[in-house]
Amino acid sequence: MIYYSIIIPLLLASFLALYILPRIIVVSVKKELLDESELVRDGKRKRNVPRLGGVSLFPILIISVGLPLACTFFLYDQYTTSSENMDGFVQFMLMLTGLTTMYLVGVMDDLVGVSITSKLSIEFVAALMIPLSGARIEHLDGLLGFYHLPLWFSFPLTVAAVMYVSNTISMLDDVDGLASGLSIIAFSVMAVLCGIAHQYLLLMVCVAMVGLLGPFLFRNVLGWRFGWRKLFFGDTGGLTIGYLLAYVVISVSRMGGDELPMGVGIVCFAALLIPMFDVFRVSITRLVNGRNVFKSGDHNHIHHRLMAAGLGARQVLVVLLLMSLEYVGLNIWGVWIGLDLSLLLVVDVATWGLSQVVIMYYKKRRELGYVA
After folding, report:
1. 76, pLDDT greater than 80
2. CA separation, residue 4 to residues 7, 67, 204, 288, 334 (Å)
C-alpha cells in the first residue's frame, strides 16, 4: 500500500513536473506571457520570468493521484462502497469541482485579467463546494471557548476560511522558492497526519503536491547553476495550491478526537500561520491608510520588510521557512502536552508580534544608516 500511497504519487508528480515545466517556459516566452516587472540585480537586467507555472499543477495532480488510486482500487480494493468511503469520495469529488473552478479563474486572470468583483464571486462559488461536501469547521476543541459550532456559523466560517487561505499563496510568489517552500512544509505536515490517520486518499494528494512542488523550489532557488529559467506560479498556481491546502487542512482538522489527538486543528493551521498572519496585517494596514484591500503593489508583505531590513532573497527564504517549521513544532508540542488551545494561540500571536518588532527595528536601523 505504501507504494501506491506515497512512492508512486511522489515520483510520478516529480517526473511530470520536471518534464512539463520547461515546455511551459518555452510557450510562455514565445507568446510573451512574462512578468511585466523589470528585474535588475547587481546592476544587470535579468530576463523577465514566465508567470504560467501554475498551469501545470492541476493536470499533474490529477494524473499523479488518479493513476495510483485506480491501481489501489483494482489491486487491493481499498475503496469499497461502504458509507464512510462513499462520503469521503463525494467530498473529494465536490472539492475537485471547486478546485477546477479556482484553476480556471486563475488561468483567465493570468492570461487576460479578471476584475476583483468577478474573481471574488467565482472564488465564493468554488469555496461553497467544500462545506457543501460536508467538510466543515464544526469543532474548535475549546479554542477561544468554542467547542461544537452550529451550522449557521460553521458554514460561512468554512467558506471564509477557504477564500482566505486560497488567496494567501499568490502573495508569497515574489521571493524565489518562498511559495513553493512554505507549501511543501504544509503539505508534508498534512501527509504525516494523514498517514497516522490512515486517510490514504488525502495522503496521495499531499504527497503528490510535495512531489510536483519540489521541482519548482529547485528550479527557482538552485536552477540558475544549470542555466534553468525561473518560473512564477501566477494566480493559477496560487489559487490552486491555496484552495487545496484549505481543503486538506479542514479535512484533517476534523479528525481531531478520533483518528488524531484532540486539538490537531491548530497544528494543521500552524503550517499556514505565516501567510495568514501576514495577509491579515497587510489588509489592516491598507484599511488604516485608506487603500483598497485587494490592490497589491505596496511592498508591505513580510518578505518585503525582511529585505528592507537588510536580508537578501536567499536569507529571507531560509528565515521564513525556519519560522514556519518553528510554528509547526511549537503547536505540535502544545497539543502533545495538552496545553490550552487558547493559550497556544496567544503564544503564536505573541511570537508573530515579536518577530514584527524585530523586523521593524532592523528596518528602521537600516533606514537611519542610509540617512547618515
Report:
1. no
2. 6, 9, 8, 51, 33
